[in-house]
Specification:
Layout lengths: L4 H26 L2 E7 L9 H8 L2 H4 L2 E7 L4 H9 L5 E5 L2 H5 L6 E6 L7 E5 L15 E4 L5 H12 L8 E4 L1 H10 L5 E4 L1 H9 L4 E5 L9 E6 H6 L1 H20 L1 H11 L7 H15 L11 H13 L23
Parallel strand pairs: 1-2, 1-3, 6-7, 6-8
Antiparallel strand pairs: 3-10, 4-10, 5-8, 5-9
């Protein structure tokens, strides 16, 4: 028996409606979750290549994320404050930053460490025969980015190793640009640098020698930080950010040339500065990122040595349990 035409139309309409609703649900499920990740300087700098490449190669998108990479006005402290307050889901910091920030009420932890070596380098002029080791910095002018970051504290540790009192050195906080410009123009005898700053001085014409920080004093590189609240309530998002960023870091080590190509494609402002990008990414791939048995994992013995030194030097008031400062629960996952 044939159905009346009106019944067939109603059935067809209902079926179409079901398909439309199903399509809407699938589209909603595929909509990426939008989050903010902060960096202490413009995220398009080559020193933040793991974040840029994770975005450009679609690793965040593949995990269902739309990541807004943004610089925090005010540098690393503002990164920590905004991440701790929940304004941003995660941020780029230095691995020992929570040692100083948590006692000041900023509830962040390191959730991944980007490499096995310190960021800190002491850079001197290659033709300065007076400075054969860091012990020879007595009486010399040395620029640093600021007096309140981990790079500076690592430098104090290096001086301590060589028996040099910081008061015997003319240490000048010159900011992230002045630190290398004053050195390049020979207004400073040395600078406490990251790989980026060292290469900026080289590109400005300086000929340099480098003393690597963790050859004599423990130090930590860049790290990903998240708040206690985010770790507790949205561990899925933290795991996605960590997994995608560490994947990009591993690939930078495996193929720096391909990383340079993709970075320049993602940040066209560097089209005419490919050699500069290659130098910086190469320096991180060679000098900073290697050295971890498990990429991203904190070295608790190193962190403990740092905390002991900072307490002894009066930079920290007291010791605290190491687990207050980091968690490894998000590293060692499949890419």
């Amino acid at each position: 028996m044939l159905r009346p035409r009106s019944s067939m139309l109603r059935a067809a309409g209902a079926l179409a409606c079901c398909w439309a609703l199903a399509g809407t649900g699938a589209q909603a499920a595929a909509t990426p979750e939008e989050i903010t990740v902060l960096t202490p300087a413009p995220p398009t700098l080559p020193g933040f290549a793991p974040w840029i490449l994770a975005q450009a190669r679609g690793y965040y998108r593949d995990r269902g994320l739309k990541v807004n990479l943004m610089a925090a006005n005010g540098g690393g402290v503002q990164v920590a404050k905004q991440v701790g307050a929940g304004i941003a889901l995660a941020g780029s910091s230095v691995g020992d930053a929570p040692l100083f920030l948590r006692p000041n009420g900023i509830p962040i932890k390191v959730v991944a460490v980007l490499g096995g070596h310190s960021l800190m380098q002491v850079v001197v002029h290659d033709d300065d025969a007076r400075i054969k080791t860091p012990a020879d910095l007595r009486g010399k002018t040395v620029t640093v980015g600021s007096y309140t970051d981990s790079i500076y504290y690592s430098f104090l540790g290096m001086l301590k190793h060589y028996g040099v009192d910081k008061k015997a050195v003319n240490i000048q906080a010159a900011g992230p640009t002045g630190v290398w410009k004053l050195f390049a123009t020979r207004e400073a005898d040395a600078m406490v640098a990251t790989p980026d700053w060292a290469l900026a001085a080289v590109n400005a014409g300086a000929k340099v020698r480098v003393f690597y920080g963790d050859q004599v004093f423990p130090g930590l590189p860049q790290a990903i930080v998240a708040s206690d609240e985010t770790i507790r309530t949205r561990p899925d998002l933290v795991e996605k950010v960590v997994g995608a960023t560490l994947r990009a870091m591993r690939e930078i080590m495996q193929d720096p040339a391909a990383a340079v190509d993709d970075f320049v494609a993602a940040v066209p402002a560097y089209q005419d500065k490919r050699d500069y990008v290659a130098q910086i990414i190469g320096a991180y791939a060679r000098d900073v990122y290697p050295g971890q048995a498990v990429p991203g994992k904190m070295d608790p013995a190193l962190l403990e040595r740092l905390q002991d030194f900072y307490v002894k030097e009066g930079l920290l008031a007291r010791r605290a349990p190491l687990e207050d400062f980091y968690t490894d629960r998000f590293v060692g996952k499949a890419p």
